[in-house]
Amino acid sequence: MSGRYWSHLLRAALDANACGGAPPAAGTVVDLRVASGEVLARVAVGGRVHRVSLILSVLEPPQWDTVAAALGGQPLFRARLLAGRLPAEVARVFDVLGLPLLPRGPAEPVVTCSCPEWGGVCGHAAAVLDALAGRVDADPFLLTAWRGCDRGALLAAVRAHARAGREAVGDADAAPPVRVAARPLPEDPDEFWRAPALPAPPARAEPPPPLPADGPLAALAPLYERLRRG
Ligand SMILES: [Zn+2]
Q1: Within this chain, do residues 118 and 222 fall inside the same structural domain, yes or no?
Q2: Residue 136 alpha carbon to ligand 1 centre in Å
Q3: Where is this region: Disordered (predicted)?
Q4: Residue 125 pLDDT exceeds 50
Q5: pLDDT tops 60 at residue 202
Q6: Whole-model pTM?
Q7: What's the rounded mean pLDDT across residues 36-62?
Q8: Integer Cα distance of 92 and 98 in angstroms
Q9: Coil, strand or helix: which one is 110?
Q10: What's the CA-to-centroid distance between 49 and ligand 1, angstroms?
Q11: 5 C-alpha to center of ligand 1: Å?
């Protein structure tokens, strides 16, 4: 896969969204910062400085949790992500999940500039978009951060899903996996350690039948008993 794949994808998305028309201003882009939902930068041109903002809608925590579960459940993606890389094929995972990573649709990103001439995508905004595209190949996690989940939060969520998957498959004595969503810590610290509610047992009127003492399910007996006791 080309080392410039992410910037190609971003430029193609911007062109498709009519953000690629204006030629970049012949200025200097300084202080480009990528935050959740917004890229901010200043563009210095001929002694004047203009502020540019590129606003993108963010994915909600449950949507990021879905992404992390999909990536954490795939050995190839999981290994590369946990090594700190974001393979370009990840863009396809977002597509399959029906979630946007790159700007999508004519309203994304919402571009504003402090220059008086601004009435669309001015040269200053084009320069910032160009500068952003120039950075995403070296650090594609800028794209996830722009969409609302920075590198650290995404890798933590992928790691949690990978761990939960291993425990479900191979460690019968492990506690039920706690699904960690990419969301802020709760106000009450006790909430942090509380697992999401378990699904209701299939038949409350009569206790579930005991597991057979032998066979492949026997190894799940301790966990099963814990779930039965609720
Ligand atoms: Zn401008």
Answers
A1: no
A2: 22
A3: 182-217
A4: yes
A5: no
A6: 0.70
A7: 95
A8: 10
A9: strand
A10: 9
A11: 28
Q: Please tell me whether residues 86 and 150 are part of one structural domain.
A: yes
- C-alpha to C-alpha distance for 230 and 139, rounded to whole angstroms: 45
Per-residue pLDDT, 193:
41
58 and 149, same domain (yes or no): yes
DSSP strand pairing (38-45 vs 28-35): antiparallel
Q: Report d(CA 51, CA 129) in Å as an integer.
A: 13
Among left, alpha and beta (phi > 0; psi -120 to 50; other), residue 211 is beta
What is the average per-residue pLDDT within 4-27? 82
- Cα of 31 from ligand 1 centre, angstroms: 16
- Position 198 scores a pLDDT of 47
Q: Is it the case that residue 148 has pLDDT exceeding 90?
A: yes
Instruction: Find out whether 37 and 129 touch, Cβ atoms under 8 Å.
Output: no
Distance 145 CA to ligand 1 centre (A): 24
In the chain, the number of structural domains is 2
- Neighbouring C-beta atoms of residue 153, cutoff 10 Å: 22
- pLDDT at residue 215, rounded to an integer: 47
Residues 6+ apart with CB under 8 A from 46: 27
pLDDT > 70: percent of the chain: 68
